[in-house]
Specification:
The structure is a homodimer. Chain A has helices at about 65-75, 95-110, 135-145, 150-160, 210-225, 260-280, 295-310, 310-320, 325-335, 365-370, 400-405; strands at about 25-30, 40-45, 50-55, 80-90, 120-125, 170-175, 180-190, 200-205, 240-245, 285-295, 345, 350-355, 355-360, 375-380, 385-395. In chain A, about 35% of the residues lie in helices and about 20% in strands. In chain A, a hairpin with a 2-residue loop joins strand 11 (about 345) and strand 12 (about 350-355). Chains A and B meet through helix 2, helix 8, helix 9, strand 13 and helix 11 of A and helix 2, helix 8, helix 9, strand 14 and helix 11 of B.
Chain lengths: ~400, ~400
């Protein structure tokens, strides 16, 4: 769909992504909206698989989000399949939209001898148009025939099938130390939202054995440290969905390897989250905003988010302009405790400000040198406590305007 | 300073602005940062003038804001002068910055036989550089010699002197019905913040007689209905300042004409606020976002602000793209009660959505026709109550990126 060139922040190639025992995936070209490309992915999961989900905080949720919430409750956190389409978000489609999501789940469940509420559904694409569900029905035989254990090529095909304005497919994996098991996942997203083509989605799989409640707790904690720490444009989609499925097929009980599992899960989630920022619409720089010295971690996070969401900070970054006054202003608007007269600011390793005034010996030249790179680090110490947090974002460029002011035509 | 062409949303000419009895103003070229233009304005007020102020909610306030807060308290809301410079915001300048503001107040007070705390100071411009106060001192004799009752030309000169990235000077006035008195004011601002040149400022004068506490109450209420209802880019400056000075020289006690006074004050404040949006950085469209059917007025305002601040809504407006799905997404992220399945959306008079689905007979062509104009109206009914509010904003264009990604060079 996208004619855009690949993001300058993209990895050189799709990374090697490990197989997860028990998971089988397939893709197909259903023609939901796009032609000439795959646009639907089916992930089949073995009986006994537990599943956890976190979803958008939007109050105008898309129908598949409503269906997933229902299904997770009805199945007590178990699933046999995840089906995802791109091209249509099935959002703002009323009761008919919910019936479409439910119908899709029933069709897949029937083919797999499962219950409808054991099939999770995600959709991403245009808002406010009815999803032509018959096209997904028609693609189902090809999907079922194509199911295979995901090798790196299959993961990449899956990631490509669920993409919309993405300029590269996103995947990551990590071994669970001390076991033969892995965590592996794919994601799509090129903005916290690009609502016409909507959303960020991530599907993460593991072959450790994990109780449903533990899976939900692990996922929620990991989302807090990964996807909830990124922002492209401060907008929130109607369809954001992150699912974690644990097949248990490796025979490794997560309970005995919880620290290793969490570490692997966090690594995969953070990698995928970073890849979404690296594919941020129009992005030319990957930016880590770290706040220290806040009243607590939540305050640090709110301040870091205010800096990361500030259009004026983001446009300055696009220009490699060491305009740290804009960081001061963003800290000031965050509504969190900060001591203006103890504020310190760093751009990369160069300290711009200390104790609320320009830092003696500050070199704008050295700060600019750092800002001319692709990977930017901003740090602010607000001087009131021990709270700290990092938020990842990208710059705001003409490319963002091009993509979003001209998208539907 | 600005080489930018005048905003396409600017009024055809500076409006006729009424004289306010007792107020005298003067401008001078102090060379604080700019050369070849006036950059300092002095407004002299007669003994007995009451004054009220509202300031930025930023926690990293500029020194002049701190001084004004101190002075208003120390004088019990009385003032003899307001002095304003452009080119340097005296922000993030530590204790030295406060001494500069205080020194400026003392210099003016000495010349007018007043107390230092009867002189209010505002500064707008670059952040984090010491203000060369000796240049203001040097300009003081010329300012004192130039004081005169402000005719329309003098108001325009005052508005021009306090401007930074503004592309046109901003003034407005209104008669207080049933009296010989007026409310008149000037403002600067081209973003809620453009921190390198910072800020929005407004100075409003009246010759009604108004107690200091009443003045503060009237100003605060009017700010809520005007300056607090606009957004250009969601950023908040370190220096935002709105002052209201009441000379009483007309002999009309506001107490006897309170409704007429409030009406005139609101008219001037809203006019100035709209002019700031019309000069929004890169703006090509003036946009009113009205939310109805919210739980209460505060909820309506939060939802309207979420729509008005959404980069995706603003870029769609720039492209005259009737992409109402982005409005749905913005409503969803506002964190306020809304019934997705009762949501209705209008672009101008064209209804796009009703009851949470596309409106029957919706014509994208008619919606686009409205969006091709300069004055845009968006309306959302969220279907849960009687709360309503309007927020004014502008679109997000390549011009915004140009101005903010290249400003300091």
């Amino acid at each position: 769909m996208s004619e855009t060139r690949v993001s300058p922040l993209a990895p050189a190639a799709f990374p090697p992504v490990a197989t997860v025992a028990g998971v089988r995936i397939a893709v197909a070209a259903a023609g939901v909206r796009y032609s000439g490309r795959d646009d639907v992915m089916l992930a089949e999961l073995p009986p006994g698989t537990t599943v956890a989900g976190t979803f958008t905080q939007s109050l105008c949720t898309a129908a598949p989000v409503d269906w997933c919430r229902h299904a997770l409750a009805a199945s007590s956190g178990h699933a046999r399949a995840i089906i995802v389409n791109s091209g249509n978000a099935n959002a703002f489609t009323g009761a008919a939209g919910y019936r479409v999501a439910e119908h899709t789940a029933r069709s897949v469940a029937g083919a797999l001898d499962a219950q409808a509420h054991e099939v999770l559904v995600a959709s991403t694409g245009v808002i406010g148009e009815n999803l032509p569900v018959e096209r997904i029905d028609a693609a189902l035989p090809a999907l079922l025939a194509g199911l295979s254990a995901p090798d790196p090529q299959a993961w990449e095909a899956g990631a490509a099938a669920i993409g919309t304005t993405d300029t590269f497919p996103k995947g990551a994996s990590a071994p669970v130390a001390g076991t033969s098991a892995h965590v592996a996942g794919i994601a799509k997203g090129s903005g916290m939202i690009a609502p016409d083509m909507a959303t960020m989605l991530a599907f993460v799989f593991t072959d450790v054995a994990l109780g449903a409640e533990t899976a939900q707790e692990c996922l929620a904690a990991s989302v807090e440290r990964s996807f909830n720490r990124i922002t492209v444009d401060s907008d929130t989609s109607t369809s954001d969905t992150v699912l974690l499925a644990a097949t248990g097929v490796s025979g490794c009980p997560a309970d005995l390897h919880m620290a290793a599992f969490r570490k692997a899960l966090d690594a995969v989630m953070l990698d995928l989250a970073h890849q979404i920022v690296r594919d941020g619409e129009g992005a030319t720089k990957f930016v880590a905003v770290t706040v220290t010295g806040a009243a607590d971690d939540a305050a640090a996070r709110a301040i870091a988010r205010a800096v990361a969401d500030s259009p004026l900070v983001k446009t300055a970054l696009a220009a490699s302009d060491a305009n740290w006054g804009r960081i001061v202003a963003a800290v000031g608007k965050a509504g969190q405790r900060a001591d203006r007269d103890r504020l310190s600011i760093w751009v990369g390793d160069e300290q711009c400000a200390s104790n609320g005034v320009p830092h003696p010996g500050y070199s704008e030249e050295r700060a600019t040198e750092h800002l001319l790179g692709r990977n930017i680090e901003l740090r602010v110490d607000v001087g009131v406590g021990d709270g700290q947090a990092t938020i990842w974002t990208c710059d705001l460029t003409h490319g963002y305007i091009d993509i979003n002011a001209g998208y539907r035509t």
